[in-house]
Design goal:
2 strands; elongated; two-stranded antiparallel ribbon; single chain
C-alpha cells in the first residue's frame, strides 16, 4: 500500500489550493498510476471483440514492419 504524507498550501481563507509531496512519494504515486493505466488498458482489450495474437508473434510482425 502506498503511503503519502502530503503537505497542503492554503490561501488566506484556509482553502487548500496545492499539495506538496516528496520526490520519492511523487515517483511512487506515478508508478502506481502507470500500473493502473496498464490494468485499465488490459481490461479494455479483453472486453473488446478484436482478435488477439501471442506476444511473440506480435513482436515478429513489428520487427518485420520496422525492417521495411
Amino acid at each position: 500500500m502506498l503511503t503519502v504524507h502530503p503537505q497542503f498550501i492554503t490561501d488566506k481563507a484556509g482553502n487548500k489550493i496545492s499539495v506538496v509531496l516528496s520526490v520519492k512519494e511523487y515517483e511512487a504515486l506515478m508508478e502506481e498510476l502507470e500500473e493502473l493505466e496498464d490494468i485499465r488498458l488490459y481490461d479494455e482489450a479483453k472486453a473488446s471483440d478484436e482478435p488477439s495474437i501471442p506476444i511473440d508473434e506480435a513482436f515478429k510482425l513489428l520487427d518485420a514492419k520496422r525492417a521495411k
